[in-house]
Structures are given as C-alpha cells and as structure tokens.
Design brief:
about 375 residues, alpha/beta, nine-stranded parallel beta sheet, 12 helices, about 35% helix, elongated
Length: about 375
C-alpha cells in the first residue's frame, strides 16, 4: 500500500551490512531526503542519484552500491523513477539493474546515461525489458500502470561493430507495449541498426519519442525512417542531431512529412551536414504539414535561400520563435540566421548550479511528451 512507507535510509544501511560493504554517503543522503518527502509518495517518487549533482557532495555510484540500492528498492511499489546518470556503473552494474527490472513492475522512469555500461550490460537490460509490458484495462485506473515508460541508454561502451544492442532493443520494441520514450544516443548506430529499429516499430504502436542523436546514420538509413514515418501514427519526436544524413536524407524526411505523416511534432537535424537543398525541402514540408511545429537545424550550412525560407516561416507565424534554434537578422541587406539556445533537451548533459532548473524552450520535449520529466 502506498501509504505504508518504509524507511529507505534504514533499509539501505541494513542492506550494506548484509552485503558486508560500506555505505555510499551520496546514496544515503538522497534516500534520507526521499524519506522526508511527504508530498508525492501517493503518486510515486523518483530517486535522483545523478553523479553530476552540483548541489550536494557526490560519491559516484559503483556496481556494489547499485546491488545494495536495488535490494532496497525491490519491494517498494512507490518508487516509480530512478536517475543514475553520470556514475561509474559497468557491465556488473548492468547485471544488477537487469535482475532488478525482471522482478519489478512499478518503475516507469530509468536513466543510465553516461555510465560505463558496455555491450554485455546493455544487452541484459534490453532482455529484461522484453517482458516489461503495460497491461491497461479500461476498468482500472491509469495509476495502476506498472511498467517502464521511458529509458535512456545513451553512450554505452561498445566493443563490437555488429550493433548487437540495437538488435536486442529492436526485439524489445516488437514485444513491449508500454515504452513511450527511448534514447539511443551515442550508440555507434549505423544504417543496419536503424533498419532493425524501423522494422520493429512497424509492430509498435506506443513509442512517442525516439532519440537517435550522435550516431553514424547516413541518408541510406534515413530511407528506412522516412518509410516508417509514412505509416507511423504515434511518433511525436524524432531526434537525429549529429548524424550524417546530408541533403538526400533531409529530402527523404521532407517527402514523408509533406505527403504522409501527420503526427510528428518535433524534428531535430542539427549538425547533419545538410546544405541549402535539404534545408529548403524541410522548410517546404513545414508549409504543407501543419502538425510539425518544432524544428532544429543549427550546425548545418545555410545559404541565402535557406535563411530567407526560415525567416519567412517565422514572419508568417508558421514557425514560432521558441520552437526553433535559429533567429533571422539582417546585415548589409542580406538575411542571416543566428543560433538560439533552444532544443529538445539542452540540459541532458549538465545540471544548473543556480537559477531556473528547467528552461521550457531549451527542453521542448517536456512540453510535447512529458513522460521524460523525471529522467
């Protein structure tokens, strides 16, 4: 029962004693803080143990620490989120996490970004999630949903070029009916991996946010994504930042968005070696597709026609200033584009040490698909 709250810190101390290991003071502090939280227990809480926390002293979480932590969280139904990014977990930690996920049905948010989990650990986690399906009946309340909704597997340490982890994640997507958000950035993913994901997503009707940023996807891989967009009716956010799609890839996407897709709301193609031809195709697609509202293009090559096209989108109101990362200005009678600090989730790789924690224009994905708010 949610109202019967165990003392997480006390259980953690006992778990460390049982395992014969020292307590991690950072984990102990964050569990004490969670024990003090009286407001959100009935709705479930997220335990935030991110190693890049600037506000408290941090001793980064290692594999043994995770074993003790998961033993505490194993039977705590009110823990619905776990943030472990920027720690030093390895494949052994991935094994502990996989074991935890296999026996847990209440976790909805998990962030393992920027750890040292390699291929073996990532595969174990993906396999554990295969059986994590969301069983929702109209006769039950939505708060009885007991499955993972979002997962971040960015930057695994891969020692193979065969894309095994991508293949296993694709198998998960074929079966899993609850995952809404998937981050596979810095995954060394190439066109074969994209093909596997797209084939799986034809059988998936729930995923809303797909992050494939910082991979090695070219225009050939974009063909599979463009074809998927012609049929997909659930995907709302597609992040292709820092790939190699070039003009041809941008044109493939533009054709799908202009003529077929009416559900994608946000597209990021920053730093993709796209020139005028591809960027103009995307601007034309926005004129024909009224659902696509957010587009991020900085880091590509802007010619004068591109600058004029996006200036026109902004002037006519088709593109709102807070929904893109460029702003037009005039110099010597010519229109140019300047960069704005806007994006899908600019604050993924740092946490502010003061001031406003979440800038909505820099983290637009939270306005579109707010499932990731606790990641």
């Amino acid at each position: 029962v949610m109202s019967l709250r165990p003392n997480l810190h006390r259980q953690y101390v006992q778990a460390c004693q049982n395992l014969g290991q020292s307590e991690n003071p950072f984990i102990a502090h964050m569990l004490q803080e969670a024990d003090k939280n009286d407001e959100t227990w009935s709705d479930g809480i997220t335990i935030k143990i991110a190693g890049n926390n600037h506000l408290v002293p941090v001793q980064r979480v290692i594999d043994d620490d995770l074993q003790a932590l998961t033993s505490v969280l194993h039977n705590t139904a009110f823990i619905t989120g776990l943030d472990l990014r920027f720690n030093v977990l390895t494949d052994a930690g991935g094994k502990h996490m996989a074991k935890f996920l296999e026996n847990n049905s209440t976790l909805r948010y998990l962030n393992l970004m920027l750890n040292d989990i390699g291929t073996r650990g990532a595969v174990l986690i993906a396999e554990a999630l295969r059986d994590t399906e969301c069983l929702i009946a109209l006769a039950t309340a939505l708060n009885l949903n007991q499955s993972v909704k979002a997962i971040n597997l960015n930057r695994p340490l891969l020692h193979s070029q065969r894309e095994e982890t991508t293949v296993h994640v694709a198998l998960t997507l074929k079966i899993n009916s609850s995952l809404l958000e998937l981050h596979l950035g810095k995954h060394e993913m190439k066109n074969f991996g994209v093909q596997q994901l797209c084939e799986a997503l034809y059988m998936n009707s729930t995923l809303r946010y797909l992050d494939l940023s910082c991979n090695k996807i070219t225009c050939d891989g974009i063909k599979f994504l463009a074809k998927l967009l012609e049929w997909n009716e659930t995907l709302q956010i597609l992040d292709l930042n820092a790939n190699r799609i070039e003009d041809d890839g941008a044109i493939y996407l533009s054709e799908a968005l202009a003529s077929y897709n009416n559900t994608l709301q946000a597209l990021s193609v920053t730093s993709n070696n796209i020139c005028g031809k591809g960027l103009l195709a995307l601007s034309d697609a926005m004129k024909r597709n009224t659902e696509l509202s957010y587009i991020y293009i900085w880091g590509n090559t802007f010619d004068e026609a591109t600058c004029m096209a996006y200036s026109e989108l902004l002037q006519t109101g088709r593109l709102k200033p807070n929904c893109t990362d460029v702003e037009p200005f005039e110099v010597d009678g010519h229109i140019r584009l300047a960069e704005l600090s806007h994006g899908l989730k600019k604050h993924y790789y740092w946490t502010p040490s003061f001031g406003e924690e979440m800038d909505k224009d820099a983290n637009a994905s939270l306005a579109i698909a707010p499932v990731s708010e606790n990641l």
